[in-house]
């Protein structure tokens, strides 16, 4: 069992996936998502600003989770990327995620192949699977 099962069953774990402690705090802002679908190729680019709002330098592991369209039958959120950034106190860094066809695909049993479903996706950016700071939707 993992975070996907806990999320699906609405069970709050003692420590969520990606949980970590820090001596400082971070503020997330300005999530921007750009989605493109060209024939069989799909690409989503997202950027988010992360500011060290605490009193000491520190590191944050920024995580990207994806919610697939309802008709895809996938768990509520799937981890699709993460970036560790070191940020000096009071400073801000822009974190970029690029999701290609691999990260946007699900296994289709009828066609026995990986497919990118059509519909509304939601990209969640946060510090853990339960500590989501920003979300944005896009369609493919």
TrEMBL record:
GO terms for cellular component: extracellular region. It catalyses: Hydrolysis of terminal, non-reducing beta-D-glucosyl residues with release of beta-D-glucose. One of its GO terms (molecular function) is beta-glucosidase activity. It is an enzyme of class 3 (hydrolase). Residues 60-129 form the Fibronectin type III-like domain. The keyword Cell cycle does not apply. Its EC number is 3.2.1.21. GO terms for biological process: glucan catabolic process. It holds the Pfam family Fn3-like. Keywords: Hydrolase, Secreted, Signal. It is found in: Secreted. Belongs to the glycosyl hydrolase 3 family. Beta-glucosidases are one of a number of cellulolytic enzymes involved in the degradation of cellulosic biomass. Catalyzes the last step releasing glucose from the inhibitory cellobiose. PANTHER family: BETA-GLUCOSIDASE, BETA-GLUCOSIDASE G-RELATED. This is beta-glucosidase. It comes from Rhizopus oryzae (Mucormycosis agent).
């Amino acid at each position: 069992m993992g975070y996907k099962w806990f999320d699906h069953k609405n069970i709050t774990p003692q420590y969520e996936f990606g949980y970590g402690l820090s001596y400082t705090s971070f503020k997330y802002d300005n999530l921007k998502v750009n989605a493109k679908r060209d024939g069989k190729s799909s690409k989503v680019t997202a950027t988010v600003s992360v500011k060290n709002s605490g009193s000491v330098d520190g590191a944050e592991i920024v995580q990207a989770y994806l919610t697939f369209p309802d008709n895809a039958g996938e768990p509520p959120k799937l981890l699709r990327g993460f970036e560790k950034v070191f940020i000096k106190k009071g400073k801000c860094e822009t974190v970029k995620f690029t999701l290609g066809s691999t990260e946007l695909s699900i296994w289709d049993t009828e066609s026995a192949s990986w497919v990118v479903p059509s519909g509304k996706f939601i990209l969640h950016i946060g510090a853990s699977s339960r500590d989501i700071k920003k979300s944005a939707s896009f369609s493919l």
